[in-house]
Amino acid sequence: MKILEQRALRGPNRYSRYPTIFMLLDIEEYEEQPSDTIPGFPERLIQLIPSLYNHQCSVGEPGGFQQRLQRGTWAGHIVEHIALEAQCLAGMEVGFGKTFDTDTKGIYKVVYRYRVESAGLRAGQAAVALVESVACNRPFEIETLIAELKELRENDMLGPSTHSIVEEAKRRRIPAQRLNADSHIQLGYGIKQRHIQATLTDQTSALGVEIADEKFRTKLLLRQAGIPAPEGVLVSSLSEIKQAAERIGYPVAIKPEVGNHGRGITAQVCNVKELETAFMSAWTVCESVIVEQSLTGFDFRVLVINGKLVAAALREPAHVVGDGTSSIGQLIEMTNADPRRGIGHERVLTTITVDTMTLRLLSLKGFTVDTVLPENEKLYLKSTANLSTGGTARDVTDEVHQDVRLMCERIARLIGMDCIGIDIVAPSLQQPLKSESAGVVEVNAAPGFRMHLDPTEGKARNVARPFVEMLFPSTVNFDVPIIAVTGTNGKTTTSKLIAHALKYSGKNVGLAGTTGIEIDGVTITAGDYSGPEGARVVLREPTVDHAVLEVARGGIIRRGLGFEDCHIGILLNVDEDHIGTDGVEDLDDLALVKSTVIEVVRPSGFSILNADDAVVVGLKDRAGGAVIYFSLDSENVTVTQHLTEGGTAVVLEGDDVIIRSNGPPVRVLSILDAPITLRGIVTFNTANVLAAVAALHGLGMAVNTIRNGMSTFHPSATQNPGRMNIIDFVTFKVILDYGHNVPAINALGTALPKISNGRKIVIAHGTGNRTDDNIREFGAALASVYDHIILADIDPRNRVLGETPELVKSGALETGFSEMEIEIIIDPLKAIDRAFSIVQPGDLIMVQVDEVAPMLKHVMQHFKNNVPRSEVKLSSQSESLKIPK
Predict the structure, then answer these.
(1) Are 445 and 423 within 8 A, CB to CB?
(2) Calpha distance 552→540 (Å, rounded)
């Protein structure tokens, strides 16, 4: 078998609302060998991975997948199930998977869910190798694979604290974006966003973190405030620490002044020999070392969030209890056999490892891992009680005395931390702390939540809830409306029209689309950003209060959406374009891809659908939120039925744009007053206006504000570059337009005769990533509209330069178009020059743009050279066009 493609779809996609792995798999000779034809295959596979028996598959009951194996199923389907189960066995529970055949024999699309991208990708690759090994009766080390996936999980998965915050945020419909490979997370979008890194927030005091990090400084601050803390001295040499220990009196505790996760800490140091070992352990972490009074009692961790104590736990370091016959090493193995223990964060408890700290503690007692521990003797294997090193925790939140509670909340204010962990050694927290027997030994910035979320004993505390509430109070609206626009044609114009209307109403709009990214009307980067990366850039912008996102087919297919849901989803139209590429095999496939946008509309939002497009209407049941139809025909049957059912529609009645619903009809404006329609001539832009009005109405915008937005948006190169930009050369006209597919050419064919009566000359180019047939059809469409065709090669993709225009030409000639009226000039600027050399009064030149700026600049140079200043007059539709320098 061969993996032809594999990629992670990180957002909602054509297969699932959740992140999935996509594989294009060539099963080669296994196309002729389903599972039941390979002797012993079903039995060997289940024997290797017994838990596959639990997969219900389409049968709908445990053992269902095994039945499919025995009846016969193809390799792609088997790979899907193995990829899922391998992740589950590695502690990443996943369930969704699908396998689809294609028009090509032996080629299958395999999709399955993942939790950690690197592990999901590796699981698919390993699944292919495993199927081949089982089929050929070769050994396969499944344990090695699971260990590898666990390592990837631990390296790349969010830690338990960050994960709990993200999940709590999602529960409240607050979106989350991971901004690096670690724990830097953006919660919320645009102007409402907040940032965390683990349990640090964007408002955590940097000074507070510094104070917490310097343990001696913290100790002094607390003691000065009358809070019990053990007496201590800061030293930097062995001689100094010996003197300090003698003065304080044994036993003492030794710790590095700056450190974390218990590194370098030794408690209960009772003599000089132990002191020397403990000093060197601490000194390797930080050259400033604290020696302090060693308190006797239990180790407690108190968590304070937003000034309130939310949880407390009694912690105990990793330990074993002797049975009189087993060695310490054997006792560790028996303890690790507890099913609650696992690698890293996969279980409630972490596997105990024998590391440098463990060996040091054993050495201090004169033990080795082979020492037999007396019966009932408890041996601590770590200096600290961190869960990540195998410690345990019991929830004691309800046992905390009110005085202790108030003291901890006071400490949070003194240090200046919004989220703080306070370590206390005391006999109990059920009574106030006494300085002679208890005290605060440390405070922690970015405290872990795991011991509170999943204590070994006692009540679990959802401490992520108050943390998220601190960032996003329930009384505050944290929404940044997302308007997502898709369709075969009209996406850019509709997106820009909506963004313009919102900005005109005082909003700070982020716009991502084919022409680049704009923030509050200012282009911050040019290029095609109609995919998920453009969406993410806009949604990360901290000034944006509304996001308008153009969503192209390619981005959905290759990476999924760049957002989890939207407030407004617009589906303008679905027509035959890109058929035969990227796995889109027919119009139904294309429709399903584009419907992703309306599927993720939140329940309180609106799906804006074109009632004049039968394919779009057929997708109504996939639409989220409430549906608002738009139509050029006020008598449209779909609209009429929708209105009788209490729905809303935006329709064209005569020249008026009308909003119809249960109440009286509302007139928005005359379409003649919407400049981009050229007084109603450009029908496709009239449809775009209707869609924009419907979207803005769904956002709750006032009618007069919608009207102002529609009437002040022009088809100029400044407001809508490359979309029906008309430049009047006095004796002839030039139009720059992006229209690059058959539906766009056909739509232009209805408008151009109303703009000019003369010859229609086009500078056009095909798109190299289309199929040969698609490119020829494009040529035929050009032949039906234009009188003279000049073909450049702007977008060859993986084709040889010149190949695409030859295919376009052949398509035009097949319609009977005159070969004398078609030319190939590879360089688009030279092609423009040629058009200007043959243009006659009354003609119209159509320039199909790709990158707008250089082509517009070249056209305007002709304008400067050919139109006397005394006769310069741009058409009313392009009056705001600025001539580039």
Answers:
(1) no
(2) 20
d(CA 62, CA 52): 9
> How big is the chain, counted in residues?
885
* 112 has a pLDDT exceeding 60: yes
Residue 837 CB contacts under 8 Å (≥ 6 apart), including other chains: none
What is the amino acid identity at position 121? L
Per DSSP, the three-state class of 3 is strand
Tokens of 461: 């505390």
Residues 20, 558 contacting (CB under 8 angstroms): no
Q: Report cis status (omega within 30 of 0) of the bond before 721.
A: no
CATH code, residues 725-878? 3.90.190.20
Q: Kindly tell me if the per-residue pLDDT of 451 is higher than 90.
A: yes
pLDDT, residue 35, reads 95
Give residues with Cβ within 8 angstroms of 224, minimum separation 6: none
Residue 260: pLDDT band (50, 70, 90) is confident
Buried b (16+ CB within 10 A) or exposed e, 53-78: eebebeeeeebbbbebbeeebbbbbb
358 SS3 class: helix
Instruction: Report d(CA 594, CA 601) in Å as an integer.
Output: 13
The predicted pLDDT at position 346 comes to 64
Q: With 0-12 CB in 10 A as exposed, 13-18 as middle and 19+ as buried, what is 344?
A: middle
Write out pLDDT tens, residues 340-390.
Answer: 888 776 677 889 999 888 987 898 788 999 999 999 999 989 877 777 788
Q: Among 300-309, 456-465, 855-864, whose mean pLDDT is lowest?
A: 855-864
Nearest to 751 by CA among 843, 670, 678: 678
Residue 878 has pLDDT above 50, yes or no: no
pLDDT at 578: 62
Residues of the chain with CATH 3.40.1190.10: 482-711
Q: Does domain 482-711 have CATH number 3.40.50.10070?
A: no
Q: What is the mean pLDDT of the chain?
A: 91
User: 209-228+296-471 architecture in CATH?
Assistant: 2-Layer Sandwich (3.30)
First to last CA, the chain: 57
What's the token pair of residue 680? 């109603």
Residue 68 CA to its chain's centroid (Å): 35
- The C-alpha atoms of residue 838 and residue 688 are separated, in whole angstroms, by 34
Domain 231-294 belongs in CATH node 3.30.1490.20: yes
Structure tokens belonging to residue 77: 């389907």
3-class secondary structure, 339 = coil
What would the pLDDT profile of 794-815 be if each residue is shown by its tens digit?
888 888 998 899 999 999 999 9
Residues 6+ apart with CB under 8 A from 665: 658, 659
The separation between CA 76 and the C-alpha centre of its own chain, rounded to angstroms, equals 27
The strand order across the sheet containing 266-269 reads 232-235, 289-293, 252-256, 266-269
